[in-house]
Design goal:
By secondary structure, this protein is of the alpha/beta class. Helices cover about 30% and strands about 25% of the residues. It contains 9 helices and 16 strands. The chain has helices at about 15-20, 85-90, 100-110, 130-140, 150-165, 180-185, 205-210, 225-240, 320-335, and strands spanning about 5, 30-35, 40-45, 50, 55-60, 70, 80, 120-125, 145-150, 170-175, 190-195, 215-225, 245-250, 250-260, 260-270, 275-280. Strands 1-10-9-8-11-12-16-13 form an 8-stranded mixed beta sheet, with helices on both faces. It has a 4-stranded antiparallel beta sheet with strand order 3-2-7-6, with no helix packed on it. Strands 4-5 form a two-stranded antiparallel ribbon. Helix 3 runs parallel beside helix 4 (about 130-140), helix 5 (about 150-165) packs parallel to helix 9 (about 320-335) and helix 6 (about 180-185) runs parallel beside helix 7. The longest helix has 17 residues, at about 320-335. It is globular, with a radius of gyration of 22 Å. The two termini are about 30 Å apart.
Length: about 350
């Protein structure tokens, strides 16, 4: 059953953007970088202090200063203070379910062609990481419907999104329930520009996605394993309402930059998930026949119920989710009236 989550205090994204461009203020999250490149994220509070084993400084030393300010603690150690970028926030925010990494969120926004004013439906909201990138892409004039089966996950996503934007985003609607049950009630059939699915078995929702999408609309799915990827691609082909699917993954390797010592870093962000896109065909159109097909033995015959354990993923405990939700509730109660 579809149900919109309770709304908070509306704050326009334009106002939030203006505040983020202004001087540092009470309630802002600030990322501190020390001389060795180590980062710390703090929230500025009246009377607050930032302590390490090598001295401290008062939050008042930053409140009212511009971004890019350097503050010195009692031991003479300097910290560069900047508001966190979205990618920084995503990797440090409270989470229940695993987040979509910034490298994948960027690929999704680009390869699904999320544009200002678009009507987008995403399902499998998790902790809200991808949601924030989609909201930035559709802008205030677009519409993003986020559908999450679990109310506790939806509560975590709501807290993260509204914390980052400073309140409700005017383009966002958050719904709880199954994608197939909810999507038909949020937008008329054939009017959705983009469908983005992050779930265990996205092939179970191809009919609902095809019904929602406008001709030429983009279907995108994020899956963790090659078996999921294969099943989804073959079901898209069998459905007959989608163009030939395209799949890929991305890996990110940083570089060490120090004088002439320029080399790849030893660690990299390797496989996080596969991305698959396809386009919605016009009704009644038969897609061109593929010239090459795998051997018959490549196709599974048995129906399988997919679980996190089957895919090697660690299930998220209810205890962890309750702890994160309580954290948001406590922060909301502690916030001064009007914030």
């Amino acid at each position: 059953m579809t149900s919109d989550l309770p709304a908070g205090t509306p704050v326009s994204t334009s106002t939030g953007a203006e505040l983020r461009r202004g001087l540092l203020r009470v309630g802002d999250k600030v990322q501190l970088t020390d001389p060795r490149g180590r980062m710390h994220t703090i929230e500025l509070k009246p009377g607050g202090t930032f302590h390490t084993h090598k001295g401290y400084f008062r939050h008042e030393d930053l409140i009212g200063r511009p971004e890019g300010w350097v503050v010195t603690n009692t031991a003479g150690i300097e910290y560069l203070a900047l508001r966190p970028l979205l990618s920084d926030y995503v990797l440090s925010m409270p989470r229940g379910a695993a987040v979509v990494y910034p490298k994948d969120a960027g690929q999704i926004v680009q390869m699904a062609d999320i544009f200002p004013g678009a009507v987008v439906v995403e399902a499998g909201v998790g902790s809200g990481a991808l949601t924030m990138s989609l909201l930035r892409a559709v802008g205030d004039g677009g519409r993003l419907h986020s559908i999450e089966r679990r109310e506790d996950f939806a509560a975590v996503a709501k807290g993260n999104v509204e914390t980052f934007f400073g309140g409700e985003h005017p383009a966002w609607r958050l719904h709880t329930g199954d994608f197939a049950d909810v999507v038909g009630s949020v937008e008329p059939a054939g009017t959705v520009d983009r469908v983005v699915l992050d779930m265990l078995a996205p092939w179970e929702n191809l009919d609902a996605a095809a019904t929602a999408l406008t001709p030429g609309g983009v279907f995108l799915a994020y899956v963790a394993t090659a078996t999921q990827l294969s099943r989804l691609a073959e079901d898209l082909r069998s459905d007959g309402r989608f163009a030939e699917p395209v799949a890929w993954e991305s890996m990110v390797r940083g570089w060490h930059l120090e004088g002439l010592a320029v080399r790849p870093q030893h660690r990299m962000i390797g496989h996080t998930g596969f991305l698959l896109t396809s386009r919605r065909l016009a009704d009644g159109v038969v897609p061109p026949e593929r010239k090459r097909r795998p051997a018959k033995g490549s196709y599974p015959t048995a129906e399988t119920e997919w679980t996190e354990e089957d895919l090697g993923e660690m299930p998220v405990s209810d205890k962890k989710i309750r702890k994160v939700v309580r954290g948001f509730a406590a922060a909301e109660e502690a916030a001064p009236d009007g914030d």
